[in-house]
Amino acid sequence: MADATIPHAAPMRRPLAGRVKAAVVLFAIFAALPPVAAALDDPFFVLIGTRILAYAIAAMALDLILGYGAMVSFGHAAYLGFGTYAVAILSSYGVHDIFLQTAAAILVSALFALVTGAISLRTRGVYFIMITLAFGQMAFFFFISLSAYGGDDGYGLAQRSTLLGSDMLENDFALFYATLATLVALFWACHRIVGSRFGRVLTGIRENPTRMEAIGYSPFRFQLAAFVISGCMTSIAGVFLANQAEFVSPAFMSWHRSGELIVMVVLGGIGTLSGAIGGAVAALLLEEALGALTEHWRLWFGLFLVLMVLYSPNGIAGLVKQVANRGRKS
Q1: Is 323 among the domain residues?
Q2: CATH no. for residue 107?
Q3: 197, 287 in Cβ contact below 8 A?
C-alpha cells in the first residue's frame, strides 16, 4: 500500500538522464584539463582543478540533503575539516595510506553526523540552520584548540598520502585523476540514491512530511540517514583538499566555508547533483578570475549571485535548460 503512494520512478528518468549527460560533459572537460595544462606548461591549472574537484564533491554531497531533503546545513564544512585532519593526524603517526585516512574520516564524520543530525532534525527551519551552525562551530573551535597540530595557524603535511604503498599521489596529475575518479564514483552513488526508493521517499518528505508520515514512513529516519551519508561524502572531499594544499587548518571548517558550499549549490541549481558540480566550478573560477582583477572581488561575486538568483532561480542548470529549450524551438 505504501509503495503505491510513492511517485513512480518512471517520470524521474528523463530529468535524471539529463543530469547524467550534463555530468558526463563536465567529467570529460575535467579529464582533458591535465593534457591542456601540460601543453601550456602551466601546472597551476591542475592544482586549481584538483581543488575544484574536491569542492565539487562537497557541494554535491550537500545538494543531496539540501536539494532532495530540504535540509539547510550551515555546519557542513565541519566534515571537510574531519577529512583534512584525518590526513594530518594519521600522517603524524606514520599512517599515510589514503584508504585508511579516508576510512577514519568517514567513521568520525558518520558518528558526528549521527549525533548532531539526531538533535538537529528534531527542529525545523531557521532552528535547524542555527543548530547545525552551532555544532559546526563547536568542531571548528575544537580543532583550533589542538596546539599539537598548529591550532589556528594550521599544520603543514610532510608528504601527501600514499596509494597502496605507492607515492604516486605526489604527482599532481595522479592526484587530479584520483580526485576525478572519486567524484565520478560518488556522483554515480548519489544518482543511484536519488533514483532509488529511498530517494523518492526523501523527496516526498521534502514536499510534504506530514503526508509521508501518514502513509507509514518515518521522516526522521530517512532524513537522518541522508544527513549521515552526506557528511561522510563531504569528509572524502576533505581528504583530497588536504593532499592538494599539503596543509590543513581549522579555516577549512569555518561557517564561512559552509556558506560557500551553500552558494555553490544555489549557483549551480538546487536538487540537480550535476548543477552542484557546475556551481563549484563556476564559484571557484569566478573567485580566481575576480581575485586577480581586484581585492574587492567578493562585491562583484555577490552581484553576480544576485543576478543569477533574479534571472535564473534554478541556477546554472536551469539557465542551460532554458537555452537548450530555446534552441530546440528555433
Answers
A1: no
A2: 1.10.3470
A3: no
